[in-house]
Amino acid sequence: MLTIAVRKVLRDFELAVQFDVPAGVTVVVGESGSGKSTLLRLIAGLIRPDAGTITIGGRVLNDERTFVAPYLRNVGMVFQEYALFPQFDVAANVAYGLRARRTATAERLRRVERILERLEIAQLARQRVGELSGGQRQRVALARALVIDPAALLLDEPLSALDPLTRGRVRSELRSILASVDVPTVLVTHDLADRAAFPERVARIERGRLLTVAS
Known about the structure:
Rossmann fold, 32% helix, 215 residues
């Protein structure tokens, strides 16, 4: 269980939300500027809350005395534009989080190989990301987030970088992959088709406040 109860002020905007995210996909929707991406950055530790707590499985990531650094949170994140490293091949991109955690070489290679096979992109291991299609880049970004065996998974508009023809197919693939990941997953989107594809739990944020959480 991911538990969020935080407050963050950014200039003239305030995000103040409190809710629980169980295992499975919770879709967070809201207008642009409502605080969706800020929420993800707080969970990931990329910014500090002004007040409140964040816990995963009872482990405190934030409170009045505690702030766990992003690389120690065991939280996987897929960014809107994927944030892949063009100078690296696919395998090196996927291994990045394991290197940051100083995972032993043999274990790192084993886990990268396993996740590439799981996402059916093992044949792309030595290709540069610039040679990949949009759907393939999304799988690489997802593999990088999953290879660390995250306690929680965050996805920020994961389909918005794809062209309309590709988006529907990749959305279906993403749904299938996430169905097999038994961790709290927060998927931020403004696309109604994304919300319909993941109908189990939807949280709506407006002007920095949580309005509803429902199926």
